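sorry for the late reply, my laptop died twice this morning and i had to redo everyting from scratch. anyway the thing you sent over, i finally got around to it. pasting the sequence first so we're on the same page, its 139 residues, then the predicted structure underneath. double check i copied it right bc i was rushing
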Amino acid sequence: MEHTKTELFNFADSARNKNSPNPSINLGVPPFTHEFPCVPKDVWRYLGIMFDRNLTFRDHVKFYSTKSVSAVRCMKSLGNSNRGLTPKQKRLLYISCIQPIATFGLCCWYKPGTRAFKSNIKMLRLTHNQGARWITGAF
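ok and here's the structure:
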């Protein structure tokens, strides 16, 4: 076993136990001994999806919405309201390049009945607002 490749992650039982301790594990064999136990992570990334203890996916949505907003800001140099790409070309570019980044892992975190749903959608709305302003040439 290697320290860098071994990961430990504990899920919380329910919303009531979200602040419960996140215990480390002493495996008794090197490299995980009493002096250096295997410490659990707060966020676990698997196949590009970021899991947290309560499965709210806030870190995942925050990471990918920030990534997509920065991509929209980079694309602003491709054209403005006076010159550059046409709105039709900008829309095509947005749908093919930005939208897949923003909605990556949507099938995992898109659950309208959950508490974290509104905050996740609010973070994602920023990307769509920036993209709409860029496409239309609004300020």
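The longest helix spans residues 117-136.
thats about all i looked at so far, will dig more tmrw
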